[in-house]
Design brief:
Helix content is 26%, strand content 31%. The chain is an alpha/beta fold. The protein has two domains: 135 residues, 3-Layer(aba) Sandwich (Rossmann fold); 101 residues, LytTr DNA-binding domain (OB fold (Dihydrolipoamide Acetyltransferase, E2P), Beta Barrel), CATH 2.40.50. Strand 11 and strand 12 form a beta hairpin. Helix 2 packs parallel to helix 3. The chain starts with 11 loop residues before the first strand and ends in an 11-residue tail after the last strand.
């Protein structure tokens, strides 16, 4: 059955995924002027958070920065294809823009220009009455050849007393910052790594390891349940250890779909 046509004055919803906060602010302000009926339901700064926001809000439109942390905009678009209309945010007027111009998708150049954004808004208003297109073919054609498979950590050398232990990432339940070191916690042991949490996070698979607190990164496969108290605070319960891990408010979005 065909979905009912939408009125041009009907409120549309959007998620903006852009890791440069000042640029995101500018884009939001311009969209408010050009399209007052557009309701921006969430702003995020990385691709994994963008996926969570799209899953939770089911927006009509997703503005996706092509180059952002964890997952880039092309990878996010590939996973949400057919679920919302996509507008890419890019700093480079490259060959991809020609592809976006000729397909049912649009783009915004950094920094956003009012004249170009007017064109984007007009296109979105016309397309929002229609089901979002499947971008799989376009993304395979223009994105896949340029991408390389990321090389994530497969194991870690960690100190435990006088010994140095080789730990595969699958064994690790969570990491916890410990000043200039990082505590590595497995089912049976705890060890120290001579790297900061941030250094490790940049090398870990973002689909497997989620930062849930400024000092904690957890293996998603180790999570048993998510607990919410009367104040709305979230805590993670692990499958194989007794301790619970706090979730900072900044990372609550990761668990909205659960």
């Amino acid at each position: 059955m065909k979905p009912p046509e939408r009125s041009m004055d009907e409120t549309a919803t959007a998620v903006i995924a852009e890791d440069e906060s000042l640029l995101a602010d500018e884009l939001v302000d311009m969209l408010k002027l050009l399209w007052p009926q557009l309701h921006i339901v969430e702003r995020t700064g990385d691709g994994v958070a963008a996926l969570g926001a799209i899953e939770f809000h089911a927006p009509d439109i997703a503005f996706l920065d092509i180059r952002m942390p964890l997952l880039n905009g092309l990878e996010v678009a590939r996973q949400v294809a057919g679920r919302c209309h996509v507008v890419f945010i890019t700093a480079h007027d490259e060959h991809a823009i020609e592809a976006f111009e000729t397909n049912a998708v649009d783009y915004v150049l950094k920094p956003p220009a009012a004249a170009r954004l007017v064109k984007t808004v007009e296109r979105l208003k016309a397309r929002i009455r229609q089901p979002p297109p499947d971008l799989g073919r376009l993304l395979r054609r223009y994105a896949a050849p340029a991408q390389t498979v990321p090389q994530y950590l497969q194991w870690i050398n960690a100190s435990r007393g006088a010994a140095v232990r080789l730990i595969t990432v699958e064994e690790i339940l969570y990491f916890q910052a410990d000043q200039k070191y990082t505590r590595v916690v497995t089912l049976e042991a705890e060890s120290l790594v001579r790297k900061t949490l941030k250094e490790l996070l940049d090398k870990l698979d973002p689909t497997m390891f989620w930062q849930v607190h400024r000092s904690v990164v957890v293996n998603v496969h180790a999570i048993d349940s998510v607990l919410r108290d009367e104040r709305g605070n979230l805590t993670l319960r692990l499958k194989q250890r007794n301790e619970s891990l706090p979730v900072s408010e900044a990372y609550h979005h990761r668990f909205r779909q659960m």
